[in-house]
Amino acid sequence: MLSDSSSIHELWDLEKPIIPERSCLHHLNPVGVGSPLVESLTSYVARLAKSHNVFLGVLISRELAPLIEKVYVKTSAGMGLRALFNRATALNGTGIMAKDFVQALEKLTLQKNLQFLTLLFWADVILPKELFRDNKSWCPVCYQEWNLSQKEIYDPLLWTISIVKFCPQHNKFLCERCPNCHQKISLLTWKTQPGYCSNCGGWLGKNSSTTSYIESHDSKYLSKKELQWETWVAQVIGELIASTPYLASAPPKENIAKSLGRAIEIVTDGNIAAFASLVELPKNTVWMWQRGKALPRVDLLLKICHFLGVSLLDFLTSEDIGNLVKTILNQSQQRSRRTRISPKSFDYEQVQDALVTVLANDEIPPLTMKEAAQRLGYDRRTIFQHFPELCRDISAKYLNYSKELRLTNIELSCREVQDIAVILCDKGVYPTENLVSKSMTKPGYLRYKEVRATLQQAQGNFPR
């Protein structure tokens, strides 16, 4: 028995076991890292609070504030948290607030990839000015689909960026007002929870009570050109966000001046004024960017990229954007040359049938005569010579649509101005044209007399 016992004791491992480090807070995995719909840091904080069954404000004041000795999280009399909530967009951005919160959250959760929920990686090449929305925006159809498939409800970083106004997955504008209480929603509040309004607590996904609200912001009110632009913007910004975890190092500020200089050299033989004219920007501004004396805002940078036919990611990270621009220009020239060299023989019956089809179908928006001619591959004047009546009818159909679209947008803008003015008046703020236009979906519609009359009426109702 003794010998048996001895042999058993020899098998015991008396070394102290290695115990993995424990996190103070839930080791919550961020959603979608490495994809265009990676969640934002503000969304992650809100989900982290929910996973601990506490309000977001409680989590920040009790756990995060002690790790961040900065003015914006000091909680004396609540002043610090209010200041933080007012500047919450900075948490997803490129500055010190985003960096502080990433470090604090990584220490508390032991997650190591939270910087990818912000634009910190792009700090040297992306100007923070007007980069983010002041309030929450969302795609109600995304929320609804995630909810029905029992996926995590969260807010992608893409939705927080001001120039992204469209969900390309569902061809919908991002919503900016709660369908239940019709108010804008702050990005962070004491009770923020992804998928719900922090003002009234209502669900923000698409359902029977929100259908009419969503349809009033539908993509059918966009022209074909506007739809292509909004879709392209969402795609290239999404591509930039998705690529971040896979890039070896952040691009230096000099890359913008370098890429812009090569583009100007190739497109206009180094003539900055000519290039500025092509992209419809002031020549002095383009000169400043090309010399590296200033950084362009993202919306203006996208305008240049779209003109060149390159993505924002390529423009910011490419070693030599020139080769890519040359390839795109050569392809464009070859297509133009093929079109000039190989004119099609005119097929009378085929063109007539196609024009009748264009006139009869319900495509929204309807084709202009120029677009119809491009689809058929014939010169518009040639088609008009053979079928003047059909051409006039197609043009009239588009003009009627444009008129109806303008009237619809005027009506929507009038209602929007009324809603914005009511919200401002409730806060005791006089609804000036400047304040109202900043909150409008289409501020340019203030030039129409109906919309201006609505604003003037709202101003007249302001209590003196």
Automatic annotation (TrEMBL):
> Could you tell me which PROSITE patterns the record lists for this protein?
HTH_CROC1
Location of the HTH cro/C1-type domain: 273-315
The entry lists its GO molecular-function terms as:
DNA binding
Entry superkingdom? Bacteria
Entry-linked Gene3D superfamilies: lambda repressor-like DNA-binding domains (1.10.260.40)
* Pfam families in UniProt: TniQ
InterPro entries membership: Cro/C1-type_HTH (IPR001387), Lambda_DNA-bd_dom_sf (IPR010982), TniQ (IPR009492)
CDD domains from the xrefs? Answer: HTH_XRE
Name recorded for this polypeptide: TniQ family protein
**Taxonomic source organism:** Nostoc edaphicum CCNP1411
